[in-house]
Sequence to fold (456 residues):
Amino acid sequence: MSGTHSSVLELIGNTPIVELTNFDVGRCRLFVKLENQNPGGSIKDRMAVSMIRAAEASGQLKPGGVIVEATAGNTGLGLALVAAAKNYKLIVVIPDKMSTARIQHLHGLGADVRSTRTDVDKNHPQNYVNLARSIAEKTPNSWFVDQFSNPANPLAHEQTTGPEIWSQMDRNVEAVVSGVGSGGTITGLSRYFARISPKTEMILADPAGSSLAEYVRSGKLGPAGSYAVEGIGQSAVPPVADLSRVRRAYTITDARSFEIARALLREAGILAGSSSGTLTAAAIEYCREQTEPKRVLTFVCDTGSNYLSKMYNDYWMLDQGYIQLPKTGDLRDLIVRRYKEGGVISVGPSDSLLTAYQRMRTADISQVPVLENRKPVGILDESDVLMAVQGDEQRFREPVSSAMTTRLRTLPPDASLESVYQILDEGLVAMVMDGDEFIGLITRTDLLNFMRRRLR
Fold:
């Protein structure tokens, strides 16, 4: 048999299953199906190819056509992968909370990406589904995928994912834990196991802020809120979703989802996305509640490579309040990026302006402290660099000392917040010094993040 493939689409599915042995799961055994091994990096590749093939077969999608879809997660990447392989144009409408890495991935696959607001209800014209439908209506020779109502979505999992699990688990799986984005996975799997193994329980993992866990528990939608986990959770039951066979639901906070996703990498070497943290956390809770041994399966829904700048970035986690530094009760609590711990990007007075500018761009910051012998002697921001090189690009080679500001405003750790406000109001940055020791900077962003963390 040949070991080669004629298309990347042939690599979708048949993903491996791994047992998690480094987690406390009580008397159970917990397995994860690595859907991040699909070529597009997520479980959504399955339904993307299924829906496009169904549309081609029905004549809804014609050669040279335009595919239009709304996606809050990986569906766009799956559709972009299939569209690229089949030479279709794709327009993707996304909510504005999607990670930059995922958006760049979509652009790289040739998709036309349109962003819209997250903070609107399902009836608002700027809701991402409504906006995508409107674009499809106005675009000639287009097909609106409508994953939330498309029957080929759950069919993909009923025909491929379910049979794979049954075979790989040696026809013995007593619970499957899944989330709901469009509802295709949990619906297709529940239909498959209702026929093949009625004893297999279907379990919902839902982010805190989604309304669906309460719907499973009581039949009524819970209050909708915001959450940072991407790709799962809804304020209403999607039309394609059938939750009638779902027996239990677990609500998982963002902090817990991120904690478990990071633990998957640290303990199991699995680079997983945020929703995988939600599913695994729910599966762990379910396992610990069992009084008899069970074989439980959940999913690594997508790769964590799209979350390296967020969930896997310690400073992002600190800024958002998902992990905490030890409290000091003074201005050090405002400083997430501390010099002693290597968190401060800095330059020396003899470094070139080009070096300073490149460090600012790499770190996505607008100013850097200038340190000499580990002590601040100045500060340099983008406007300083611009003024220095204006009219002569060769001045990028000049030393930082030629352009830096030496007017420094320093504060001891026990200074008041009011003193920080005063410095920032002058358009400056507060430098916190403990005697001769440089602790770090306090910028407007640091102050706002500190205030938001206290709101939690």
About this structure: The chain has 14 helices and 15 strands. The two ends are 58 Å apart (CA to CA).
